């Protein structure tokens, strides 16, 4: 069904494609791998990166959007190897489509607020607050997906260095944003610690 | 005056085995308790914080908090979808003055089915949304059918971005902090991605009606409140409980924002303070906020 909508979309945007830019031409050599659940995307990205594939997470094209979702963008030529790697880890893509049109990119901006003894890192709608002294995670705020309170409960009181990364159990876009804030918080705290030792 | 029981708070708790629960609740020693039908849940953040805030407002006003429809969901959306289905099937069996939707898995298809069912009710209940359900409402394109949204400034940028289906995809030129909230509001209303009433939470709180900023609230200012998980849930919790007690939307929105800011002033939190330490300040904060508002609208 997704292929049908993609074909329809391609038909109606043909006139624009006739004037295709170099970006769009480059896009034809990439594929979008979709999954049933966002949690599977988060697992797949980690597995594929660990296996050495060059992949990135992007928002799905409009005809595939359901709400809280994203997918993996990869080099089209690597698709068979990626499928094999995923299958070996019991991950089965819902579909693999040639990349076409504009894709939604995740938020890349990260902001930091220094409260003196604590600092807060914000990525998209998620915020994590860490104590400068010992790296303890003191608060997690923001977000709206149901795994945020669950992950917050697991992170609170743990050291930013030892705590399990949110993407290990995260299953939504909010958890992915929290992962970005978490990693930036860890980086800043370790940098400060190394700078003071 | 409306009866609080005619309102419903709809959300999730972060426990996979928590059953689908519909009914009343109480707050005891930092736990939301449901009698024998469901296990108690700690008040920390998310919908339990919403319920806690609504409970304290109800206590202040001498009434009962709204009823609640809850389900366990730790992120895969299964619990949320079961809740959506149950609500779609049974919404016509009950008579609600209003519903407030909170931490639910943002699923546009289920959102649309539910909205269709709600729109068929006569009279149609007041509809409030925050968190994941607000994301689904915006992505659906039907945000303008809602009566109240309570975004923070980051979520406000998401509402202003007509192409973003989730805050995670808000484009950089909007998600930076350079664009003033009034400009984001204009953009959100222009694309019908805002509710009739909005409480925009941030260093300045904005009370907005149909695109017009009615009030800018800057004091008392406790910047560390932004770091404390659950302070946003307090705002929708206070607003919902006030609406359920019959307070008009304009007053409920303003009082909710003032009350939560007063809580910050009373407790003087640090960035490590937890939401449970702030909630007990609600009765005093609500009293102070109400007096100030009464003075503001009464000619001397």
**Overall morphology of chain B:** globular
The top level CATH class name of chain B: Alpha Beta
How large, in whole angstroms, is the Cα Rg of chain A?
Answer: 19 Å
Q: Could you name the ranges of chain A where pLDDT drops below 50 across 5 or more consecutive residues?
A: 1-28
Q: What is the correct CATH architecture of the largest domain in chain A?
A: 2-Layer Sandwich
Q: Please, what is the CATH homologous superfamily of chain B?
A: Ribokinase
Helix content of chain A: 25-40%
Query: Which strand order does the major sheet of chain A show?
Result: 2-3-1-4
The side-by-side strand order for the widest beta sheet of chain B comes to: 2-6-1-7-8-9-10-11-12
Counting helices, strands and paired strands, the structural category of chain A is: alpha+beta
Q: Compute the number of structural domains of chain A.
A: 2
Distance between the termini of chain A: 58 Å
Number of helices of chain A: 7
Contiguous helical run count of chain B: 11
Keywords:
heterodimer, A: 197 residues, alpha+beta, Alpha-Beta Plaits, 2 domains, 4-stranded antiparallel beta sheet, 7 helices, 39% helix, disordered N terminus, B: 300 residues, alpha/beta, UDP-N-acetylmuramoyl-L-alanine:D-glutamate ligase, 9-stranded mixed beta sheet, 3-stranded antiparallel beta sheet, 11 helices, 12 strands
Topology (SSEs and partners):
The complex is a heterodimer of chains A (197) and B (300).
Chain A: H1 2-12, H2 14-17, H3 22-27, E1 30-34, H4 38-50, E2 56-58, E3 71-75, H5 79-88, E4 95-98, E5 110-114, E6 118-123, E7 126-131, E8 137-142, H6 147-155, H7 173-196
Antiparallel strand pairs in A: 1-3, 1-4, 2-3, 5-6, 6-7, 7-8
Chain B: E1 7-13, E2 21-23, E3 26-28, E4 31-33, E5 41-42, H1 47-61, E6 67-72, H2 78-90, E7 98-101, H3 108-119, E8 126-129, H4 131-140, E9 148-149, H5 153-160, H6 172-175, H7 181-190, E10 197-200, E11 205-209, E12 212-217, H8 231-244, H9 249-267, H10 275-278, H11 282-297
Parallel strand pairs in B: 1-6, 1-7, 7-8, 8-9, 9-10
Antiparallel strand pairs in B: 2-6, 3-4, 4-5, 10-11, 11-12
